[in-house]
Write a structure and sequence with these properties.
With about 325 residues, the protein is of the alpha/beta class. The chain has an 8-stranded parallel barrel with strand order 3-4-5-6-7-8-9-10, surrounded by 5 helices. The structure holds NADPH dihydro-nicotinamide-adenine-dinucleotide phosphate. Belongs to the shaker potassium channel beta subunit family.
Amino acid sequence: MVNYRYLGNSGLKISEITYGNWLTHGSQVENDVASACVRAALDAGITTFDTADVYANTAAEQVLGDALKGERRESLEIFTKVYWPTGPKGPNDTGLSRKHIMESINGSLKRLDTDYVDLYQAHRFDVETPLEETMQAFADVVRQGKALYIGVSEWTADQIRDGAALAKELGFQLISSQPQYSMLWRVIEDEVVPASIETGVSQIVWSPMAQGVLSGKYLPGQPAPAGSRATDEKGGAQTISRFMNDETLTAVQNLKPVADELGLSMAQLSVAWVLQNDNVAAALVGASRPEQVAENVKASGVTIPAELMKQIDAALEDVVVRDPAKTLEGMPKKRPA
Ligand code: NDP
């Protein structure tokens, strides 16, 4: 079964393997397969589920809500997010203004068919809304009982510090940061992680498998396997493209002996790797098939010895991205319309 970790400086425990439905539910996979993946997650001991209003333009929340129907609400941790535009994309259907936050949470709760979410996350930093306004709106969402805790995603170290200070002043808990983190993408290590430790914030990390690349199934110079994300023309092929070059795919194949030594698949190794970092509360793993969920949960509780961690670093040295400036570089410079 899956181990639990505390989320930030709070009493909330979450499953260290968390199931996420970006690009899959309401898009790449049919609804019956989506339900089967959620079932596989529950059967394997995953209790924490992550989605966002923007995934499949709100359809992903609906699919997840349907798939979780009938489950005991108190036994689940349901996370969603606000920021990116959805619906008719009017001037206020975006960002972290008080108006958009207060309206978005209601839409998310309806689609997820629940009275509250356990964690409500700012999907990005909104450079057009005063941070005080955003944090006051989150405080009110918490006081209304619509969200129990608040988190952020892809915020810089300074933004996390400022947000955490305001949350404290306003009397609610900012407990999580959701950044990209994997053996190939380590940009949070130098700044975001130290700021998070300082402020009582944990990481819930996305794409720990680099969208499937670290499973080793994409071979240099060969076509991508049928049905994989790299062949998904609804969005997956484009988002995975940053890793789909021969240099990266060749380096990834060097991880096979490390996985073999631990008796793990390469997919399991990649998930176990992010969980070696104590500031990571959960690896946020996606799946297009239930068997993948069953395989990936076995990464829970694995310890990778120091000499094998070094071997991983040596294998990937030339292709790892570490520059902490990437968080700010990737941030929208204005509110998306
Ligand atoms: P992963 O890196 O875990 O990639 C998941 C994909 O890899 C699956 O959909 C599947 O794709 C493939 N895969 C999974 N398991 C295996 C396996 N055992 N063997 C081979 N291939 C496998 O994570 P995601 O990129 O899906 O992101 C996870 C979650 O993170 C999202 O659902 C979302 O909740 C969150 N997220 C958050 C973001 C943010 O801005 N806050 C941004 C992006 C994601 P296939 O079979 O199609 O190849």
